[in-house]
């Protein structure tokens, strides 16, 4: 991360999994904002809604690339390997490295808060929905890791190929691009395992 403006990253279409995690994380951060409004002292970046604002900006950038949102948008291009084997699509997304760093710090603070006392622990233990508090901490770390994956020659090759094709275009990879896809997909799967 450089912090010098938006960074283009490759994001796999994870269907509704990423959407669900981001929506539930937003719910947790809204609970914490309510606790702060009632006088609870929150650590940075939870204080003042910084984490919530960063998450919302990231979601605005990523949402059109995911699941039904991608299918309903102009970003719904498909990705094929040689022999027309369909792959999980990778899409180009501009993210602000500062927002990604804020989300990473949020995951750390939530992880520490889960074992502590106070508003963070109470929010993590509250009955909010699909994901438990511990699962939300992991989801926050995975989302930030997914959006902060270091560039490799393979990921740069894929970004260039997808950028040349344009948003929403179906792309057929060459054998060299296929090898780059497989290497990049393995790294992305380490951040967010596909089911």
Account of the 3D structure:
The structure is a single chain. With 195 residues, the chain is mostly helical. Helices cover 56% and strands 10% of the residues. The protein has 8 helices and 5 strands, in the order E-H-H-H-E-E-E-H-H-H-H-E-H. The chain has helices spanning 17-37, 50-62, 67-71, 97-114, 119-125, 133-147, 153-165, 175-191; strands spanning 7-12, 79-81, 85-87, 90-95, 171-172. The strands form 2 sheets. A 3-stranded mixed beta sheet has the order 3-2-5, with helices on one face. Strand 2 and strand 3 form a beta hairpin.
Q: Could you describe the largest sheet, including whether it forms a barrel?
A: 3 strands, mixed
Number of helices: 8
Question: Structural class from helices and strands?
Answer: mainly alpha
Strand order of the largest sheet: 3-2-5
Number of strands: 5
Q: Rg, please?
A: 18 Å
Assembly of the depicted chains: single chain
* C-alpha termini separation: 29 Å
Principal-axes geometry comes out as elongated
Give the low-pLDDT segments. none
Following the backbone from N to C, one meets helices and strands in this order, namely: EHHHEEEHHHHEH
**Mean pLDDT score, rounded?**
90
What helical percentage do the residues reach? Answer: 55-70%
Protein name: DUF222 domain-containing protein
Fold blueprint:
Elements: E1 7-12, H1 17-37, H2 50-62, H3 67-71, E2 79-81, E3 85-87, E4 90-95, H4 97-114, H5 119-125, H6 133-147, H7 153-165, E5 171-172, H8 175-191
Parallel strand pairs: 2-5
Antiparallel strand pairs: 1-4, 2-3
Helix pairs in contact: 1-2, 1-5, 1-6, 2-4, 4-6, 7-8
């Amino acid at each position: 991360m450089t912090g010098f403006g938006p960074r283009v990253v490759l994001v796999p279409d994870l269907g509704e999994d990423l959407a669900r995690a981001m929506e539930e994380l937003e719910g947790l951060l809204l609970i914490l904002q309510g606790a702060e409004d009632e006088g609870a002292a929150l650590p940075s970046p939870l204080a003042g809604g910084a984490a919530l604002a960063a998450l919302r900006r990231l979601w605005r950038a990523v949402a059109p690339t995911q699941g039904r949102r991608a299918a309903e948008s102009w970003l719904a291009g498909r990705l094929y390997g040689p022999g027309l084997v369909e792959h999980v699509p990778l899409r180009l997304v501009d993210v602000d490295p500062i927002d990604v760093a804020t989300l990473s710090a949020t995951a750390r603070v939530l992880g520490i808060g889960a074992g502590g006392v106070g508003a963070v622990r109470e929010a993590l233990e509250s009955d909010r929905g699909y994901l438990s508090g511990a699962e939300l901490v992991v989801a926050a770390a995975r989302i930030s890791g997914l959006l902060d994956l270091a560039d490799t020659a393979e990921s740069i090759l894929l970004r260039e190929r997808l950028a040349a094709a344009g948003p929403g275009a179906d792309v057929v990879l060459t054998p060299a691009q296929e090898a780059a896809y497989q290497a990049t997909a393995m790294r992305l799967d380490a951040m967010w395992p596909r089911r």
